[in-house]
């Protein structure tokens, strides 16, 4: 049989929104002329697109022999409870499984088949009884409790900050107790934590950072840091009823290779040359090279990521000055930033979330929220009594490449106020440690999404219940 190749072009342009987080916390201060620079959104990407290239012909078994996916960054740490990063997003559901999966408001069974609210802050989750990982370890309620408790202690999966405890009620029922009655927010908790065998995790020399042992339909066979990850389809995958699984468990490819390509322009070349079948990182300016072209499919979607510029609110930091935070907020031209970094693929945002989230109000799009005003910025800077030679450290991740461009735009725009910005870019694992150390930075550039509701990104960064009584940036 002659094989026919199909090119899927899936181009996800990350939503580029910059929100200047600042005032948060328990402050009840009411703005008079200007808001206290709690959050100043910058940009919102309208459409996301992501190309892909040729997908091998389907064999008579219904299984494609191999698909190569181009991802924009190295996951760096493959462990189940590591902090999120751009590279990790691309391979996470290939590596790990969760209690439930969510598309829209409803939960789909994954490792769990049902959950029930048994009290105001208590939920019982019932597991499937035949779950095994790639090493043959059987997964029970004790493993789920162990996974959640370990992740809670490490603190990288922030929605788990809403949990008081997770315990095994029986072999296949897990009890979750939350700090408050979460309502629909319990969904985010139940889809947040990868589940692994306690035996497998504790037997790993590096906490599965390079070789995860999981329940997924695919097993990692090779990881070359900075280059690629190769997964093979499991013939002994535990879930045989596809109707009881989310779409991400579909295993219709024998070998899935994720190649790490950090430069966006190289994604375009990889698709054109056939060295990649799918990409989520083709530059917006290159989409026309694939749109409507035979053998390629372009799928456009709005991303829900928000770029957040946070102020350090720890005691003694110069940015505890409301006037200085406001000055910085007015000095950043978010539209100019969009035009410089991702032309045609982002717009200034007016909220930490975007129209993808449930509860978003379209009227926010027409309301002023720290519009660029250098004159007002200079007035507020003078009122802040900040030193004329003020220098600030800006902490950001090394991935993706556009992050560096955003930092450079911020650096140049704040120079107009006389502020010197020192850019510190580090790899994602280092960033996830340093961002919670108030001595490491004055400004931090991060991404946030999380959950389905418009308040979900706020919870991720600014909910005091998750950060021991302050926001994530100590306000």
Summarize the structure.
This protein is of the alpha/beta class. The protein has eleven helices and 21 strands.
Question: Can you characterise this structure?
Answer:
The protein is an alpha/beta fold. The chain folds into two domains: 18-46 and 304-466, Dipeptide-binding Protein, Domain 3 (Dipeptide-binding Protein, domain 3, Roll), CATH 3.10.105.10; 73-260, Periplasmic binding protein-like II (D-Maltodextrin-Binding Protein, domain 2). 21% of the residues lie in helices and 23% in strands. The protein is built from eleven helices and 21 strands. The strands form six sheets. The protein has a five-stranded mixed sheet, with helices on both faces. The protein has a five-stranded mixed sheet with strand order 13-14-15-6-16, sandwiched between helices. It has a four-stranded antiparallel sheet with strand order 9-10-12-11, with helices on one face. Helix 6 runs antiparallel to helix 8 (374-383). The N and C termini lie far apart (65 Å). Mean pLDDT is 84; it is low at 1-60.
């Amino acid at each position: 049989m002659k094989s026919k190749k199909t090119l899927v072009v899936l181009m996800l342009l990350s939503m580029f929104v910059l929100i200047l987080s600042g005032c948060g916390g328990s402050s009840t201060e009411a703005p008079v002329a200007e808001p206290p620079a709690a959050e100043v959104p910058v940009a919102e990407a309208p459409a996301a697109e992501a190309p892909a290239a040729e997908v091998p012909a389907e064999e008579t078994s219904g299984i494609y022999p191999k698909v190569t996916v181009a991802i924009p960054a190295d996951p760096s740490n493959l462990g189940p409870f590591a902090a999120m990063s751009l590279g990790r997003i691309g391979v996470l559901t290939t590596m790990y499984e969760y209690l439930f999966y969510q598309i829209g408001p409803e939960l789909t069974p994954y490792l769990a088949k049902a959950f029930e609210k048994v009290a105001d802050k208590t939920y019982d989750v019932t597991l499937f009884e035949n779950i095994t990982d790639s090493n043959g370890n059987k997964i029970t309620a004790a493993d789920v409790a162990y996974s959640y408790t370990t992740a809670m202690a490490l603190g990288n999966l922030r929605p788990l900050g809403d949990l008081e405890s997770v315990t095994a009620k029986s072999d296949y029922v897990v009890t979750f107790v939350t700090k408050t009655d979460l309502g629909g927010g319990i969904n985010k908790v139940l889809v947040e934590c990868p589940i692994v065998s306690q035996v497998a995790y504790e037997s790993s020399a590096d906490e599965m950072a390079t070789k995860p042992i999981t329940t997924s339909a695919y097993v990692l066979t090779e990881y070359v840091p900075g280059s690629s990850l190769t997964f093979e389809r499991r013939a002994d995958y535990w879930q045989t009823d596809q109707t009881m699984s989310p779409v991400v468990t579909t295993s219709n490819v024998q070998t899935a290779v994720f190649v790490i390509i950090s430069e966006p322009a190289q994604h375009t070349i990889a698709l054109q040359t056939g060295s990649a079948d799918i990409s989520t990182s083709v530059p917006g300016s290159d989409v026309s090279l694939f749109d409507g072209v035979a053998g390629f499919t372009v799928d456009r979607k709005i991303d829900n990521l928000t770029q957040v510029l946070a102020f350090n609110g720890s005691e003694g930091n110069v940015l505890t000055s409301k006037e200085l935070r406001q000055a910085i907020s007015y000095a950043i031209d978010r539209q100019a930033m969009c035009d410089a970094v991702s032309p045609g693929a982002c717009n200034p945002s007016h909220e930490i979330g975007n129209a993808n989230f449930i509860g978003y109000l379209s009227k926010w799009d027409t309301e002023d929220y720290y519009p660029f005003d250098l004159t007002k910025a200079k007035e507020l800077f003078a009122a802040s009594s900040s030193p004329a030679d003020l220098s600030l450290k800006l902490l950001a991740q090394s991935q993706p490449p556009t992050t560096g461009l955003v930092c450079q735009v911020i650096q140049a725009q704040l120079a107009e106020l006389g502020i010197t910005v020192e850019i510190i870019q580090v790899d994602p694992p280092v960033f996830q440690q340093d961002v919670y150390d108030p001595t490491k930075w004055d400004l931090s550039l991060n991404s946030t999404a999380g959950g389905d509701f418009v308040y979900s990104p706020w919870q991720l960064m600014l909910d005091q219940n998750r950060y021991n009584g302050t926001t994530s940036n100590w306000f």
